[in-house]
Design a protein that fits this description.
Chains A, B: It comes from Trebonia kvetii. The structure is a homodimer. Helices cover about 30% and strands about 25% of the residues of chain A. Chain A contains 13 helices and 18 strands. In chain A, helix 12 links the parallel strand 17 and strand 18 (about 345-350). The first copy, chain A, has 2 domains: about 1-140 and about 320-355, Quinone Oxidoreductase, Chain A, domain 1; about 145-295, Rossmann fold (3-Layer(aba) Sandwich). Chain A is an alpha/beta fold. Chain A is globular, with a radius of gyration of 21 Å. The relative contact order of chain A is 0.16. Chain A has helices spanning about 35-45, 45-50, 135-140, 145-155, 170-180, 195-205, 215-225, 230-240, 255-260, 285-290, 300-315, 330-335, 350-355, and strands at about 1-5, 10-15, 25-35, 70-80, 90-95, 95-100, 105, 120-125, 130, 165, 190, 210, 245-250, 270, 280, 290-295, 320-325, 345-350. In chain A, strands 3, 4, 5, 8, 9, 17 and 18 form a 7-stranded mixed sheet that branches. In chain A, strands 12-11-10-13-14-16 form a 6-stranded parallel sheet, with helices on both faces. In chain A, helix 4 crosses helix 11. At the A-B interface, strand 15, helix 10 and strand 16 of A face strand 15, helix 10 and strand 16 of B.
């Protein structure tokens, strides 16, 4: 098959052997795979992959790796001994993980578990979800990105009087905003340097957007909440709590630190960025403020399923996230383009054979 | 009065003006004040005090500052307009904070709110707690340290199957251990390089003590929990959760990072150390593991009250924490001695007049 292959730090599209499904595995044909910022994190930071003792994500520059973990695909065949739960030709997706003898692996972030930037790849039979939808595969494939934001928004446990502040307005942030909106939270504040991203935030449900180059997001938060009843605020402060819930969706060193320094006492921070370089954090300030930081983690399985159904049913409209579609030959260029914050939240890769048939 | 005064980074005992209670303030005579590691953090890190935009703790090297925030004292007089809630001569303590026009201030960490390393100091009338106890003041004064650990242990929300791991065995850690024991948690693991501190941990209720120079605390944790039912572990892991609750009580750069790198996925970390230098944290590892870090914060008022009553009633025996007693003239030397992890968890300062009368 043809695939966009990561090797020695760069991506090129060429022929590689077809993947062969083992026991419990499904061979699928790629219909559409979205480019995610964590593809860039992964390819740019081999030391982070080499350093991960979980084994979920590994990186070896000397072997072929096919990235791509936000996909919509079609069942082709099953490995030995399968119950063949869905017929060949069924459109499917799944959480981007593969279970097996060596523990869990993230699909598209391991040499053994190639992802959707190739014509074919493998899924875990037990995680297969049929796509019950008339929506195009390019739309369905972003449900994994939506699931990350969906789960984070749900796990942030925003209470009725909380005012969430979303830092960064990439695809994950936009999903966070859409989910917070569904949960009835508000006003929702969202900050990004890029005007087009702020426009997307409004489209997805943000009530107030902030240009951090103009005003501190925390000052904006204080302005918006200035009318809150003083007694409520004092009561919450006495209980070591704040109405401030910050969802960090940037993943660049210094951002989490700036949140620690800027936020209110008792703020709860949901940190989804996961900067591969790490961040130097003011632990004394964090201690004085009694901050809580929940680091991302993947979406819980039930949250992934909910987000997938919301995207497939069209009840969560992801069209504002979608930019152009490219072929396999253009993956290297499209990965580079995805670095540009002025671009769309998602560029989608559709293998050439699929494109021809559209 | 005489006081141990912090000025230009060093402490000397000399005469300073007597404090004068303002409206809502109480003049108290110091009976006993314990030396806390945060006195050392405060005096060693003027940049951290200068940098704290909360105003709770401020530091000016060019003015006199009297530290000391774990105290037992005796009511002398009240400021103008007071209801005089407790008679002169009553033994009292309080949370080490003062409310007023300029917002909240930590007692002993601001020029305007001197602490208990002088013969007299001021308390906030609204926070005054009478000491209903026959225990000596040297014992009662450590209740504030106990409150920090007590509140942290309660806020850590240890569940029935959780196995807590306490990193560091200083006074706060020992209070955490004692409180966890009361809450029925266990087995409780505690790690410290110093044999005498490990012995104290056992005395306060730890079930397993670990020398991190010999074995990784996380390996020890895995060994202790190896017998847990596999199905329970898998169920928890699927819910993004772990039975691992780590309470960090060290406050030295690198320790929080080593916890992030060493701990299980889904671990909840209660970080009480608050290293003034900050810490470089592996945010990607924290994200992959879905870690939650709750940074200290002060004890909640109700937790402070509970801990104070537990110490005063003798139901929580703090005697293992207590080392020698020193006079005001010896505070500088005793602060230095408190840097030695081989020393006792608490050295207590008793002003000279009080010592003479004992």
């Amino acid at each position: 098959m043809r695939a966009a292959v990561l090797r020695q730090g760069r991506v090129e599209t060429r022929a590689v052997p077809d993947p062969v499904p083992g026991p419990g595995q499904v061979l699928v044909r790629t219909l559409a795979t979205a480019i995610c910022a964590s593809d860039l994190h992964y390819m740019d930071h081999p030391e982070a992959g080499a350093d991960d003792d979980s084994g979920w994500s590994t990186y070896d520059q000397d072997v072929d790796i096919v990235m791509g973990h936000e996909y919509c695909a079609e069942v082709v065949d099953y490995g030995p001994g399968s119950r063949r739960p869905l017929a060949a030709g069924t459109r499917v997706s799944s959480r981007p993980v593969m279970f097996g003898g060596g523990g869990m692996k993230i699909i598209g972030q391991n040499p053994e578990t190639p992802g959707g930037f190739g014509e074919f790849f493998l899924l875990d039979e037990t995680l297969l979800k049929p796509v019950r939808s008339d929506l195009p595969s390019e739309t369905v494939c972003v449900s994994d990105a939506v699931a990350v934001g969906w789960s984070a928004a749900k796990r942030a446990q925003v209470r009725p009087n909380d005012v969430p502040l979303v830092i960064g307005c990439g695809a994950i942030a936009l999903s966070v905003i859409a989910t917070l909106k569904r949960l009835g939270a508000g006003p929702i504040l969202a900050a990004d340097f890029v005007p087009s991203r702020r426009a997307l935030a409004l489209a997805m449900g943000a009530d107030v957007v902030i240009d951090p180059g103009e005003v501190s997001p925390f000052q904006a938060w204080r302005d918006v909440t200035a009318d809150s009843h003083e007694a409520t605020k004092n009561m919450m402060a006495a209980a070591g709590s704040s109405a401030c819930v910050v969802i960090e969706c940037v993943g660049v060193p210094g951002v989490l630190e700036s949140i620690i320094r800027g936020c209110e006492r008792g703020t709860r921070i949901m940190s989804l960025g996961g900067a591969p370089e790490g961040d130097h954090l003011s632990t004394l300030t964090a201690k004085r403020k009694g901050l809580n930081i929940q680091f991302g983690g993947g979406p819980l399985p039930e949250h992934w399923n909910e987000a997938f159904e919301a995207v497939c049913s069209g009840s969560l409209d992801v069209s504002p996230l979608l930019g152009r579609t490219v072929g396999l030959e253009e993956v290297a260029e499209a990965l580079d383009a995805a670095r540009d914050a002025n671009g769309p939240a998602r560029i989608v890769v559709v293998p050439d054979a699929e494109r021809a048939s559209q």
